[in-house]
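PT: before anyone asks, these are the final sequences, not the draft ones from last week. 943 residues across everything. Please model them as a single complex and drop the result in this thread when it's through.
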Amino acid sequence: MWNERMEEKIRWRVSFVFWIGLALFLLLSARLWYLSVLREEWYRERSERNRIRVVFQQALRGSIYDRNGLCLVEDVPRFRLLFLVGSGDREAVLHRLQEVLGRDIVFSFRERAAGEVVLLEDMTLEDVVKVEENKSSLPGVLIEAYPARNYRGKEDIAPVVGYVGKISAEELEALGRVGYRVEDRIGKSGVEAFYENLLRGDEGYRRVEVNALGQVVRVLDFRPPRFRYSLQLTVDWELQKECYEALGKRNGAVIVGNPSTGEILALVSKPSFDPNILSRGVSAKEWLDLVQERSNPLVTRPTQAVYPPGSLFKILVALAALEEGVVGPGESFFCPGYFEYGDRRYPCWQRSGHGRVSFEEAIAKSCNVTFYTLGLRLGPERIARYAQMFGFGGDPHIDLLGAKSGLFPTPEWKRQAVKVMWYPGDTLNLSIGQGYLLVTPLEMYLLLSTVATRGKLYDPHVLLRVLDEKGSVVREVKPFLRRNVALRSQTWDTVIRGMEKVVTQGTGYNCRGLATKLAAKTGTAQNPHGKEHSWFGGFFPSDRPRFVFLVLVEHGGDGSGEAALVARRIVEWILTNRG
Amino acid sequence: MRRERLLFVVTLLLCLLGVFAVYSADPQREEGFGTKSFFGRQLFWNVVGWGLFGVFRFSDHKWFLKRGWLWYLLSLLALGAVLLFGESDETGAKRWLFSRSVQPSEFSKLALLLFLSFYLSQNRDNLGFWNLLVKSGFFSLIPAFLVFLQPDLGTALVLGVLWFGTLFVGGWQGKKIGFLLGIFASLLPPFWFFLKDYQKRRILAFLDPWQDPLGSGYNVVQSQIAIGAGGLVGQGWLSGKQTQLRFLPARYTDFIFASWCEQLGFLGGITIIVLFGILFWVVLDVAQRAKSLEDRLFAALFGIILLFQVSVNIGMNMGIAPVTGIPLPFVSYGGSSLLVNLVCTGIVARIASEAEGEGGKRWI
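LR: through. Structure below.
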């Protein structure tokens, strides 16, 4: 029944509700105090982080010039189309974009950064203009410029300059701390890789205030990306091109340089590749096609491939024999066309024999029999000692990545590696540059260079000077004398005279009649892969050498043929254009 | 007269503050006065709402109370119509009628409030088990369930609280209420499976918003950032980064409190809390002084849902209550909610004027 007591109870309950309410309001006030007064700073910082976005811009790379100031590589702007996720209806925008560009497009949808998707890479200028004109109807679409490498020199100079690529996961792990990011470019080979530290500039950034839709409200501050240094190479691009073309359809290597400074003027490797394509990024299949091709174009032949040197090696044997006194300059040899040792006959390359030849003529005619004799007189240990003096099997100290060294066989090496003892037959093979002996073209080039300077070996290098942003020189590369091979001058004279006679009377007949005194040597390297490799190397003018050159034509046959013809074309070009 | 004047002034202040708050967070502020901008529409609804306030203040509210059944049935019809022909909003919930101009779930609060006050006072002689628990429960849960189907968890909760408030104020024994709460608590886990995905995410986000600050925790995190970044005195009128750069979601409706605090700081926020505190006190005071049981119940129940909506809304703005889509009365943008609240306040003002002079017993 309804009564006063119940009325009272309701009033009591209402006042109870009031106290609950009061408690709640106090709780809310306390929480408000906590958030806005006690933790103000923390939340204000969160708010800043919300609205400020830092967009990093790829560092520029310095340009690379040849020794005459021709530009080989430079950064050019390219454009990519970005879509800011969350701003506008994605499907509608994509549809509109197809309309604007007037064609069906396969969008890449690569996520570049949080909330940013790349729609199109490497846009044409035409597309850029179309998108910019219709920007108002494309919410959330953004064109971003980024630097890309433009290699003006292509296959001809790729082995020297190298190429850049996206930084790999392993490189990033190693270099992440020094400021590399996921999207960054890094030199992968050649000068691009070796001088990465100089070429890579500073990244830029743009701090922008954005709203919740990711739209940029205003730019807060901005630092443009820049490069620090450009490089000038010792390479003479025109000469380089000439050398590349001189090889024609053949694969091989050419090195031309200055013996008294170590400057490399040309360093050609064939087959080669277009660094523009590699730098843009190739698909897995394209990459496999490149690498698995029989004659791998990514191998820089002058520094990374090894070959038997053939008769070119006789220069070293001749030097050793003279210096060690196992032969006198006036001594003569008889070549019947073969050399009998034990119960075997080792043939001279000229089956009919050279007859009686002087020491210098033996060099000129590349008489195997003479050098078999010298080899046996020297023995493998002494040959090895001289080879070591000339740097065989050691670090060539060139400023290109991945330079290899050849294989110089010794009796000890053979015992350990082949598990067979050294036979005199091995010495015979070694003394004409065959057998186990393998060299890189650069090692042979350095031998020739050392002969040209009569014992002074300068480190080969492709960097001439470092330029700053404004183009003024900040560093000149000085010739570095690696070692002085001190032989008697009579030794040098005799060998150089022999090499001159190679051209005038001997196997280098294809280079006869040039307007300079040329000292050279041919080489014909038998190899298990097919026709002989053709070598030809030398220097000129022989009394005061300014140029050393080395030509290797893979499977070019006789050294007096293909390689000598290539060399002749190069020497003639130098005499005409750089004489 | 004193109570009534206080009620009027506080409500008016809250409404004015609401128009300013909506203006400051209005994405279409440039449209100016008129129906294109949100604050223009809020101003319009305020004019209509205060007209209704006057109507209810100066007419006999008993007439409406006596027809509680009618309003109740009408609201059920409207809620049914929403489920059948309603229009959806951005979240995909069907809440609207008449090309998104009327939100019947808001009006169902008023209808249930009128109906329960009348029903209880009519049956005051046997406020026992059946009448209170079963019958009022039955009558309350029908609209609550219909609203829940829209889905609009927030309003459904308000209707539920209205019923619970009825039980409490209606004088039900404390032990039984405790028992009922226990049953509710045990029903919560299975209830989880009936929640929509987004509702589940909201609750999880409430428990740990920083777990997924860009996803489900976004609202909670952003509104706390806005309040925190406001500091003691705020970042200045119209210059809060969270609001103006639109990081704050629903900044002119559910999260208007955060937007307000970002601009005017702790002082701005405490102003709102104090105004609501005064309003709440006045409403309950009127309930105590009311002459009749239905008046007392009406004012008390209005006070309860006012308290519930205010504390849940401000609480969710500050990350201490789950995000349930309950607007801040008088302040949040929204015509239906504003009209309903002003009608209720008008009736309470009427009750206050009738009780004035009665003196009433001191109760605090």
